[in-house]
Amino acid sequence: MLRNQKELDNVNNMAATPSPGQLSSLQIQQMMADAKRMINVRKQALEATGITLPPSMSSMASSASMPPPGVIVPPPIARNMPSMMMMENNNDVVSFDDKKRKIAELQAQIASKLASGGFKPDEEPTKPIPLLLDNEGRAIDVSGKQLLFPTRQPTLKANIRAQKRPATDSRPMGKDGTRSVVPEEEDFMPPAGNKYFDDRLPPASVIKKGLERKKKSLRFNDPGKYVAIAQKQRTEARLNNLKSEIADKARKTGIANAARMAKLSGTAGSSDKSAEYIPQVEWWDTLILEEDKKIKDLVTYDSPIKQDAITSLIEHPTQMRCPTEPNEPHCTPVFLTKKEQKKLRRQNRRETWKEKQEKIRLGLEPPPPAKVRISNLMRVLGTEAVQDPTKVEAHVRQQMAKRLKTHQDTNAARKLTPEQKKAKKIKKMQEDVTLGVSVSVYRIDCLGNQAKRFKVETVAHQLHMTGVVVMYRECNIVVVEGGPKQQAKYRRLLMSRVKWDEDMVKDKEDTPNKCILVWEGMVKERAFPDFKYKPMKTEEMVREFFKKYSVQHYWDAALSGTVLEAVIADD
User: Fold this and answer.
1) Quick one: DSSP state of residue 213?
2) Which is a GO BP term held by this UniProt record (predicted)?
3) Which of these three, 109, 140, 171, is where a domain ends?
4) pLDDT digits (tens, 9 = 90+) for 355-414
């Protein structure tokens, strides 16, 4: 009993201090009063029809009555906690399942009697039924049973088709293990019932086929796929660079031309490099020789001659244009004598004067003011000069000063600025080398004199020439590139202006220094970007430097002259 009393006190305390979200005691009392009022109204309605309920049932119905609409009541378990505890102590109280069963039987009896008596129950309330929650927040009915609400599924066409599709699907299976999505028949409106249908459209089967969309499967790249692709591309790039280098070397060394001639002659080189292949007949002679009937595909000089191939006509090869020649013919200008130039200038000035006088006569231009000077003052102005000579003289001097200022301004505008003068001088010094570059190679025994070395470099820069000066102990080589006029001025510097014989060759006191022109000629383009000095220690370094610019033959020509001179001197 003490335990039951403590539990009852705890329940009362919990009811007195409601937790957040629960109803207070006043609200519960108001709710119970409303429920009793509604039960009384329903009992009166039943009594009017002649139906009476037993007292136990009426009390049970009143305890299980529904709350008014819009009112949320606490769970029946928490609300009837004291009564339930008392029922546990009372053996004559029926269980909860028996109550529910009796309520269901009573409701069935009431429904049958209402149907037989013709009584129409009140209309359903327009307001929604209040939601009843238990202490765990679950939705329950008046009997305390948990309510299970149906879950709504999305009503998409794909889900509807999947439900309607039979278990044995006849659609074709794709490569990725999925079936193609084919639109259903109900998605297409028949042409007869569609007023917007166009007869020119293709049939429905073709349209369905066009609307099909194949599902692509997710494919992952294998590890190292792009690494292999990048490695392959790098290998191809290196191979292409190697091919281009081989082609350039073959073109520069003449191997490509020899291979082309061998291809034209129809001969192939022997596998043995020591044995040189000599053709039986030159390719230009095969045109007039017949094949030997005994040995097919073999032509020798003993073969008979084709008489039909020999005529009295002479075939002249087509003359090719030199790459250094201009595309348009160059016309040499006609130079006039001094007397002819004066006469032409006088005629031009007279034509201009006549044209100006004609415009003044027609009124197109105003007549120019009289050109008054101190010498012709009285003759031009006449009486005006006599009336006020001082004023007229001041006016004349003002006009003279104005004409002088106009002349000086015109000359100043025509005068070139310092930048323009410099550009004009550089343009005059530089030459057009698009059709060919003149190259000169000089060999100097010794370049130990600092002053002469400075002249060699400075004049090359002043003439805007390119090249290199390679300083080697046995052979100093100077290579300069430019136009013909530049080469003439530079040749005059090295061969005439600079006195090389004033100095003696180092380590050879009895040998005077000298400068020799090794080679000069024309090339297609420049080999060096600028003019600079390059001191070298070994012959291999010199040759590698010139080989870098593909002009190693300059060094070979200069060194061969030095070797020949040394051999002659020893003899």
Assistant:
1) B
2) mRNA splicing, via spliceosome
3) 140
4) 999 999 999 999 988 888 888 877 777 777 777 888 888 888 999 999 999 999 999 999
- CB-count burial class (<10 Å; 0-12, 13-18, 19+) for 199: exposed
Of 118, 140, 162, which one is at a domain's C-terminal end? 140
Cα–Cα distances in Å, from 162 out to 159, 184, 438? 5, 11, 88
- Retrieve residue 448's tokens: 């130990």
The count of structural domains within the chain is: 2
- Tell me whether residue 393 is in a domain: no
Q: What pLDDT score was predicted for residue 81?
A: 44
Residue 178, pLDDT score:
53
Residue 375 backbone zone (phi > 0: left; psi -120 to 50: alpha; other: beta): alpha
> What pLDDT is recorded for position 140?
83
What is the identity of the amino acid at 556? D
Question: Which CB contacts under 8 angstroms, 24+ apart, belong to 425-431?
Answer: 426/464, 429/462, 429/463, 429/464, 429/486, 430/464, 430/483, 431/482, 431/483, 431/484, 431/485, 431/486
Give me the pLDDT at residue 356, please. 94
Sign of CA dihedral 103, 107, 108, 112: positive
Angle between helices 225-253 and 255-265 (to 10 degrees): 80
**Residue tagged 């020893």 (tokens):** 570
The reply to whether 72 falls in a domain is yes
Segment 164-214, tens digit of pLDDT: 665 555 555 555 555 554 444 444 555 566 777 777 776 666 555 555 666
Instruction: Measure the CA angle with vertex 558, ends 556 and 559; round to 5°.
Output: 65
DSSP secondary structure of 126-193: SSPPPPEE-TTS-EE-TTSPBP-PPPPPP--HHHHHHHHS-SS--SPB-TTS-B-B---GGGS--GGG
Helix or strand or coil: residue 474?
coil
Plot region of 167 (φ>0 → left; ψ -120 to 50 → alpha; else → beta): alpha
What CATH number is associated with residue 465?
3.30.70.100
**Cβ atoms 69, 95 nearer than 8 A:** no
**Rounded distance between C-alpha atoms, residue 478 and residue 491, angstroms:** 11
Strand partners, 179: 173
With contact defined as beta carbons under 8 Å apart, do 282 and 270 qualify?
Answer: no
**What is the three-class DSSP state of 438?**
strand
Q: Can you give the residue range of the structural domain that contains 19? A: 2-140
Could you tell me which of 192, 89, 189, 77 has the C-alpha nearest to residue 133? Answer: 77
pTM, two decimals, is: 0.39
For residue 470, pLDDT beyond 70: yes
Paired with 520 in beta bridges are 440
Strand segments (E) across 434-528: 437-444, 466-471, 476-482, 504-505, 508-512, 515-523
* pLDDT 10s digits, 7-35: 545 545 544 555 545 567 777 788 888 88
How many other C-beta atoms can be found within 10 angstroms of the C-beta atom of residue 219?
7
Rg of the chain taking only CA atoms, in angstroms? 61
How crowded is residue 266: how many other Cβ atoms within 10 Å of its Cβ?
A: 11
210 in any annotated domain: no
Residue 471 counted as domain residue: yes
**C-alpha to C-alpha distances, 447 to 462, 504, 513, 560, nearest whole angstrom:** 20, 10, 9, 19
More confident residue, 504 or 65: 504
